[in-house]
Amino acid sequence: MTMMENRSRVHWETATDPGHRGVNADAVSVRPGWDGTQPVLALADGIGDTETAADAARVAVAAATGTLPARGPTEAVLAAQRAVLALGHTGDCVLVVAMPFADQLGGGYRIAWVGDARAYRWDGRTLTRLTSDHTVAEYFRRQGMDTTPRMEHIVTASVRTGRPRDIGLVETREETGLLLCSDGVYGSLDPATMTAIVARPSRFGPRAQELVATAIDRGATDNATAVLLTH
């Protein structure tokens, strides 16, 4: 599935594919700003190949993008948590939210997350990773300890379980692009390949769709989802 939108100078695309899973438990929501520019972006990856995981992801992104940007992305993650806890089942997900902001110095985007969904900054030439994974592997690496491949897939914070202090927060200023993606994308594509795809002129087709399709072609077994915002 691919969606493309143009609002003033802002362009965004979304794409998702279930991969080899029985259920696509990834979800995306994009809410345009009141003036048709600078949308709020949210991407969630349900934990597990189940309908309850998919339900949690859908509810989480809807609640996140339904939060007023003035309240910030941390509150958007907490709103997603309240919505997931209200479902009445044990479905859970990881989540990354990007919200525009403006202040006396200019503005940009603030990004909040729990888990291992990622956000990257795109400056027209380089993809720069903005988020750090909330996983057992990342925790061990920070302690200077060895990791195993399985540790990469065990999250230490999620929408359901995360406490306010667990929520990551970062900002990127000025007019830059953003890429949000699930581990089905970045787990199968190296940074050079991701950069080459995003750098391709948009006239050749949707770049978010190419990211997802290339990840699947290169062996991704998980759901693969991407949101690309450019100016």
Q: Specify the biggest β-sheet.
A: 6 strands, antiparallel
Strand fraction band? 25-35%
Order of helices and strands: EEEEHHEEEEHEEHHHE
Please tally the helical runs, counting DSSP H or I stretches of 4 or more residues: 6
| Quantity of strands, as a count | 11
Strand order of the largest sheet: 1-2-11-10-7-8
Structural category: alpha+beta
Fraction of helical residues: 25-40%
User: What is the typical, i.e. mean, pLDDT?
Assistant: 91
What is the CA-CA span between the terminal residues?
A: 22 Å
Shape: globular
The poorly predicted ranges are none
What is the CA-based Rg, rounded? 16 Å
Folded structure, characterized:
With 231 residues, the chain is of the alpha+beta class. 26% of the residues lie in helices and 32% in strands. It contains 6 helices and 11 strands. It has helices at residues 51-65, 72-85, 136-142, 183-186, 191-199, 207-217; strands spanning 2-7, 10-17, 26-31, 40-46, 93-103, 106-114, 118-122, 127-129, 168-173, 177-181, 224-230. Strands 1-2-11-10-7-8 form a 6-stranded antiparallel sheet. Helix 1 runs antiparallel to helix 2. It is globular. The model has no long low-confidence stretch (mean pLDDT 91).
Brief digest:
The protein is built from 6 helices and 11 strands.
Describe the secondary-structure layout.
Layout lengths: L1 E6 L2 E8 L8 E6 L8 E7 L4 H15 L6 H14 L7 E11 L2 E9 L3 E5 L4 E3 L6 H7 L25 E6 L3 E5 L1 H4 L4 H9 L7 H11 L6 E7 L1
Antiparallel strand pairs: 1-2, 2-11, 3-4, 4-5, 5-6, 6-9, 7-8, 7-10, 10-11
